[in-house]
Amino acid sequence: RTIFNNVELLPPDALFNIKKRLTDDSRPVKVDLGIGAYRDDSGKPWVLPSVREAERLVREDPSYNHEYLSITGFTGLTDGAAKVLLGEESAALKEGRVASVQSLSGTGALHLAAKFLSKTCPEKSVYLSEPTWANHKAIFESQGLQTATYPYWNAATKSLDLEKYLEAIYSASRGSIFVLHACAHNPTGLDPTEQQWTKILDAMAANDHIVLFDSAYQGFASGNLDKDAFAVRLGLQKLATVSPILVCQSFAKNVGMYGERVGAFHVVLPVPETGVEVQNVKAAVTSQLAKITRSELSNPPAYGAKVVSQVLNNKELRAQWYRDMETMSSRIQKMRHALRDHLVALKTPGNWDHIVQQIGMFSYTGLSSEMVQRLEKEHAVYLVSSGRASIAGLNSGNVEHVARAIHEVVT
Ligand code: PLP
């Protein structure tokens, strides 16, 4: 009877608690710049036209049912997912070096990666960018893996600290694990340039490191799904004869199916040395991933997987999806400019150009946690204490209110 009486009460999750405070807030104008979820210009969640049509096709399919999927998931999703990120012409795909399984969105893919690594190489450290998405550390540490950080963001210059980043790659033990944001880095909105990626990935190869690409925003950085796959595809080339690459892929944001938890986890095996049969390694890796899934979910959820598979594999829907991606990324871009322009017009102290230079869903505003608190208390503008603002929460009806609020807390 008393066994749970002394269980520790944990604080609520910082990000999800913002939503709760916002819902309880009775002020007429309130703005949610917390969670990274796309909103249209009236502040509403947006079901992508490509997804609406895909849902219709799934439901009207004569074989429509709610049967269990296989343990490794819906192959239409996993194959399509691999192609859209690794590239139709990927040598790794053509050579059968990619083991792919369905996951519970990006978080589930990261969990699979962490669990698989904890079984296969528990002694390795996992390096995370400083800063990174708040959940990375928790996901890897929950599987008993050690985490460390590598420098990324130079707060003084609001730019990439490439020199220190490269130093960290060279000073980590050979064969360490590095988690890289494939594009639209969360929270900084700052990605390496193509030249910087080349240096970073060459350094990874020179040190035999295992790269884990976390791809949660493909399409949100540039508006173009292929352009945003640049780093992953370059990594596949650079590391092809060096080490495996792990890829965690989410369709929460770019297909807008946040709550359906659609994702994939891929293990890209290197070109095998003589005497090693890559198909055997791939089968063994897949069997381990299937064993994890079987004990945790039995099998992954079907509905979202079928819908996203339609989007990925139906030519017309895929073209529509590319247009939907442009719609979302260009509206975000417009809001970046609107916010910056309002701040400039208000003569708010400081330089606000980083808001338009940063990419993806977020802006790392540089506002202090005290300013963030004041934004919420005085102006009902909600964001996380690090000063990261989800630009997707801005619209033509609230951007001026947000600019005035920032102006007030800064001056
Ligand atoms: N990785 C990064 C960098 C993210 O920002 C997120 C979500 O915010 C995820 C992974 C996982 O998202 P989901 O589990 O909703 O696909």
UniProtKB/TrEMBL annotation:
Its EC number is 2.6.1.1. It comes from Lachancea mirantina. Its cofactor is pyridoxal 5'-phosphate. The keyword Ribonucleoprotein does not apply. NCBIfam families: PRK09257.1. Homodimer. SUPFAM superfamilies: PLP-dependent transferases. Belongs to the class-I pyridoxal-phosphate-dependent aminotransferase family. One of its GO terms (cellular component) is cytosol. This is Aspartate aminotransferase. It catalyses: L-aspartate + 2-oxoglutarate = oxaloacetate + L-glutamate. Residues 30-406 form the Aminotransferase class I/classII large domain. GO terms for molecular function: L-aspartate:2-oxoglutarate aminotransferase activity; pyridoxal phosphate binding. GO terms for biological process: aspartate biosynthetic process. Keywords: Aminotransferase, Pyridoxal phosphate, Transferase. In eukaryotes there are cytoplasmic, mitochondrial and chloroplastic isozymes. Pfam families: Aminotran_1_2 (PF00155).
